Structure formats: structure tokens, C-alpha cells
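To whoever picks this up:

The parser on our side crashed when reading a file containing two proteins. I've narrowed it down to the boundary between the first structure block and the second sequence. Both blocks are reproduced below exactly, byte for byte. First block:
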Amino acid sequence: MNTVPGPSARCAPPRRGSVILIAGGILFVLLLLAGWFFQFMVMQNRLTHRQGQQRISTSLAFALATLAIQKIQREVVRDPASKLARYLKKPLSSLGDLPAAADTFVRLDQGATDLSPILREMVEPLSHLGAFSYEIQYSCRGSDFRPLRDSAYTREKRGLIHLAIATIFRKTGGTTLELREEFHFVTQVKVTAALVPILSKFTLYVEDARESSDVTDADASFRLNVVSNTATGNRTSPPDGLPWVLQNGCEGDARPDHLNDWITSRRGLVYLGGGRLYLNAARGSNPFGEFAEGFHFFNSGRGDGLYVFRKLQDTYLLNWDQGVTVETSGGGSRDWYDTIRESRWAPYLRKSSALRPYGTDRQPSPTIMLGEVYRSYIRTRAIKHTNPSSPYHFRPTFLTHQPAHDLTNWQEFISPAHAGERDNIATFNQFHLPSLFPELTQAGVNLPLTGSPQDLTIYNEVLASNWDRTPYNRSLAMIRANNLAPRPWVDLPEGPLKALMANPPNTTLVHAIPDALRPLTSAPDLKSMRALLQSLGIPGDRTAWVINPTAENRTILDCLKARGLAQGNTLDLNGWIYVDDAGDLRLTQKVVVQSNGGIVLKKGNIMIGHEISTIGPEAHLQLVTLDGDIIVDTNQKVQAGLVAHKGRVRVGAGGRGRITGAVAMSRFDLASVQQGVDLVYDTALGVLPGAVAEPDSEAPLLSCSVNPTPWFLK
């Protein structure tokens, strides 16, 4: 059977080219991805390496900034010739900018503080990066600086020091490769003066020298009179108290006629608060005794000190003022004391004051005394008639003080029936007294005096030799007149200075803060030490360091050493330190002060048992306790300002020493006269607030405290 054959089956051609193309594309993509990944990994590795290098460079730059700050603190700001020191001491108003320049580089390997060994140790692990070098430059911008809060001193301020730092690693070989990194740091700086506003202007400030609010308490008014001296003003043998002798500065300068000229000079002032005080002046003669104060009186050291108190025709009433002495039982001193022996004030007139506020006859040191303070002395009175032909003539005689309750003696004293010396008194009483004292008659007193007890009282209080007291500042006029005029204050021009000599003085005026010092404080007057210390600003804006010895389990000195502020027997504060703790500061070894600064204790005593000296004219130390005493128990010099807010600055039995500075305290310790002290005012402290001219300013007292921790900007 024949069949018809169908179409034959055909096979599709193979697609080998497409497979190859696809495979190749995939492989290409994989290779491309691998390349990208490799490149990414290389870049990441480089980035990681680069970041590591940057971290190393940044850490190195931070270390360089820290070392540079130490160099600036220890050397640059101390060098008066450095641009930075001169810049920081300018008044804020004229500060401007301090640009980086060729002479603002800081070298760590030069000068007294060589920090290159520390730097070598730092860069040695990085030696594989190449040879290392650096550049450090400082600069300042005036816009970064601000005044300290409530400060009236034109140069006190706070601000920033800019540090431009470059780190450089250089590899040499076939080619030279250099890696240079630049950084910008700033650090804080505080410029303060080593003085206590207001109080540092006083050689001696005592808030309450009287220690009694009872205005009738005579013992309180005379309490400072505890020193025995001979008739020539020398110490007794054995000594019975030795005074504090003040040297207030400017001893060789002219004595001004105006109060403001006294205040604005570099003299230290004196303030004794608490109420009325009588300071007995020590008797003196020529040659001058060690502690004599004859300069208070007319014609002192020249013999006759009699001067006319009142005169009518040929009749004279004369005074002779003289200081006190404990020698009242023999010689001329006894005769002198006998004229007032019966006065109720006589027991107070044997010992002189614990203070010599105006120095001594050997070196007078006048200044302004503020407070209700009187110079106290014996006023011997005499009568004289110069017309021997008069039927009412009498011979010169002293008017001795009469026993207050012995009427028999009084009646004999004034009776014309008695001859001899008392007849002179009787003649004066009968024929001269009524016309010499018309104001007594006007006051209802019948003259001549009779033998009544009332007239005895009038005689003793008005006519007789007695105790006298006058405002302390009158001695300024006496010294200015070289003791050649009996009442020189009357010739002074009218004004505030003469007002301080008024008797009695204006109690508001004698406690007032002088106008030139008024910008320093908001306190209403000088009476409150607490109010005056508000302007210290510590704790507060003027503080450079705050330490807490208890928290650190260290002494105060060890805390200072840990911060580089003390080393061995050297204090290098460069600013104000506040001890925020209760504890004592003991300075039992010699202390050398290298820079301006101060230490303020929150609570505790400051004990000084050895010398404190300073290096150079720009090293001043202030020691302040806000609640405690300062005890100076050494016969060595102590160059420091001392302030005891709630306590006393006491002088121990370690011998008579010398304090150069300014002393302020709440109360005066009478035991401090056992040895006494020479208190010399540091005239560098007598600066004026707001002074722009450098000679009148606080520039020599400035310290620049640089924060040791830099801030990284970029």
C-alpha cells in the first residue's frame, strides 16, 4: 500500500553566542564591582589611616597647646618686655588687638622653662612619620575681653588668648614628603590686681578698736593706752609693752593743704572705728626717744612749750601741752604729773597708746586719720602778769588741779589771806579772772570764785591743769608748721581737711569713704568691714583657683604645689586662690613670693612663723581670712598684706618684727604690744580706681592667670 510521505522534522540551530555574551556581561559586572569594591576598600583604608593620623596630630597639637600655656604662664606674661605682657596690662578701654607676628612665637626649648624633654618623649613614638617640628603663635582680640564684675580698676579683665599651632612631619628619601597640620586653640586668661579694694589703701584699718557700744565707757575710750615709756620716749626697763609704729609712706614729700591731695598720694591711711578713742601721745624730748611723739606739740624739743591761750592786757593764761610717761614719781616728770595728779583723768595719763599712727619723733609719718580719734595729753596751765608796777601784779605760777572733795584745801588755795605762792592765785582770782573770762559771768557764774564746792568744780574743769584731747588730724598742721605755731590749723584753707580738725569733728565726715575711693565700693561708709569686702570679689569673679584641702586630703600648701602654684619655699600664685574649706594656713618656713597674688580662707587662721620676702617689684602677696585670726610670730620681715575679717591680726612673742604691706582687722588685740611691730605701708598698694596713666594705676600689682586647659576650635 502506497502511502504519501509527510514533511520531514527539522532541528533549531544552537544559541551559543548569546550565552557567551551574557556570561561575559556578568563577569564584566563582577569585575567592575570587584574593582569598585577594591577601590572602596583602598579608600576606606586610606581614610582610616588619615583619620588615625588626624587623631594623632590633634592629640599632639592639644599637648603642644598645653605646654605652650605653661610656657606663657611661667615666662611670657612675666616678661615685662613681651608683647603679651604689655598687652594684657593695658586698660581695657585701649586694648585693641594683638595680631600674630614674628615676635609672638612660643619656643618650648628656650628660656628658663625648657619643655623640650617632654616634647621629645611625646613625639618619639611617631618617628616613623618623619622628622617632627612645630610652630606656636599667640594672638589676642580685644573683642574677647570683658571687665571683671564690679571692678573699678581699669586694667582688671578676663578674656582669651588664641594659639595657632602647626605640627609638621617631614620624610626625606628619594622624594621629600611633608605632612603639615594646622590647629586653632584658645585659653582663658584673667588679669587681676593683688590688692583688697579700699582696705589696701589703709596702713592700718581696725573695724572696732573700742570694743564697747557704751559711749560713756571711759575705759573703752582709753583701752589702747597700754604702753609704758620713759620721760624721753624710750622703752622702760624691763619693757612694759612696745607699740605698733606706723610708716605710712611719702615721708619726705610735702604735707598738702587739701584732703584730696593726701588721699590721692601713695600714703597709707589709718582708720580706727568703733566710737570715740583717746590715744595718749608719748612724751618726748631732744634727743628723740625711740617711741617719742613730741611732734604732736608746740615747740617740742626746743625747751619752753608755753603758748598763750588767753590774754587781756598784761594778764596771760598759758598752756603747755606734753605727752605722757609712766615715770611720775621723780624729777621733772613728777612735777609735771603733779599738776594734774588730782584730776579724775590722771590714772588714764600714765601709759601711751599701743599705736604710733604718725610714726615717732625720729621719723614722723603723717597721714589722714579717720574715725573718732583724738590725740590725748597733759595740758598744764599757767598764769603770768607782765606789769610788775601794777598793784595787782602776781608772779607766774602753774594752776594745779585741786582735790575734788577737799574744801579746806580749796578755800586756802584761793584765799587772799594766805601769803606765798597761793597769794598769786588769790590775786589772779580776785582782780583778773572776772575780766579774763567774761563768758563765765554771762553763764551765771559769780566771779571771783569762792570756797564753795561748785566753784571748786568750775576751777578744775575750766582753769586748772588737766587732761586734754583734740582731733588727731590737728597734728598734721602741727607737723606741717614744724611745731613753731601753737594753733597752726586755724591758718589752713577752708575745706574738708580743716573740717577733720574741727573740735568736735563731724562724725559722719570721719567715717566717710573718701571721694577718690568711692568708685571701689557700694558700702555706705568705712564702719563695716563686711560691706567693704564685697568688692574683693572672692569667691567670685576675681578668683583664679578654688581649692578644697579636705576633699583632696592635702594641706593648703600641698594643694598649691599640686597646681604648680608653689614649689619648695616659693609661692608663685599669679592670681587669687580661694580656699573653700575650714582649715589653717601654716607658714612656718621662709616663704619667697615670686608673683602677684593672694590667698583667701573661707574659715581658719593664718599662722606666720618665719620670713615672707618678695622677688622684684612685681611680687605682692595678700593673705586674707574671712573668719579667723592672723598670727605673726616672728621677728623676721613679713612682706604681705594681712586681712582678718572677723578676727584680729595678732603679733606674738617671737620678737619685734616688720610687716610691709597693709593690715586690716575686726578688733585689736592688746596682747600684741608685748613685742610690738613696725608696720610699713607698701606704697604700691596706694593706687587710685579708674587710673589710666600707668604711674597711678594698679599695673605693678597685676597678675595674669592663664587657664591650663586649652579649648580646641578647629
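<<boundary where parser fails>>
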Amino acid sequence: MSDTAWDSSKSEQEIQENINQALEAAKSLDFATLDEVKEAFKHD
């Protein structure tokens, strides 16, 4: 196992910050349902 793929010292905190930002954005936009949130963040 190598460390090259993941920098755990920063990636976990950055992921949590991104989640928090997404939650705040969703709250501020007042999505009606979780499905609308999922649609808004879908990447196809």
C-alpha cells in the first residue's frame, strides 16, 4: 500500500468542509426534497 493516492492529513478535512458547504448551500437554496438535492448535485 502506498500513500500516493491519498493525502489523509488534508483530504479528510477537505471532504468534510466540502460536505458542510454543500449542506449550507442546500439549506440556503431551500430545496423541497432530498431528491431535488440529489438531482442538483448529479454528475452525468
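After patching the parser it read the second block fine. The chain has one domain: 12-43. The two ends are 31 Å apart (CA to CA).
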